[in-house]
Backbone:
């Protein structure tokens, strides 16, 4: 189903007929996330995993597993958060990756992304650098994952 919506959107763009997202496309993303059985969070520490799972539970979604491996090499890429998610997809089979890391260059803030099993971005959220917003890591992660889910129309149970 998701592939059908993606294909149709590509064709609409090709034909210069695309005029924005459709409700059924968003619902397809929601369905994919709701049905994800194996969700992984690639990182080196458990703090983010605990917060992310707390929010997934608040949205009545399946819990994620901590996929622990050294992710610091992702910092050498232009979008470290995306690189971290792609590394996880290269290293394990999963339905969904939830990755958080630096947005871009040092000082650019944080980015949280949800990628499907093919590496397509389903949703994401950014936050300013910690030195700008002053939030704790836990608070920033909580806000980012909540925004990721709310931006595709999911609500807390």
Residues:
């Amino acid at each position: 189903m998701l592939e059908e919506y993606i294909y149709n959107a590509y064709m609409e763009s090709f034909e210069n007929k695309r005029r924005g997202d459709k409700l059924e496309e968003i619902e397809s993303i929601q369905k994919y996330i709701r049905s994800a059985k194996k969700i992984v969070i690639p990182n080196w520490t458990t703090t983010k995993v605990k917060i992310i799972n707390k929010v997934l539970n608040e949205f009545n979604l399946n819990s994620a597993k901590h996929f622990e491996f050294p992710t610091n090499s992702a910092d050498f890429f232009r979008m470290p958060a995306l690189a971290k998610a792609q590394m996880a997809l290269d290293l394990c089979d999963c339905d969904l990756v939830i990755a958080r890391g630096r947005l871009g260059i040092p000082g650019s803030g944080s980015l949280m992304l949800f990628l499907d099993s093919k590496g397509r971005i389903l949703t994401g959220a950014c936050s300013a650098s910690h030195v700008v917003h002053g939030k704790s890591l836990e608070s920033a992660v909580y806000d980012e994952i909540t925004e990721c889910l709310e931006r595709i129309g999911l609500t807390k149970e």
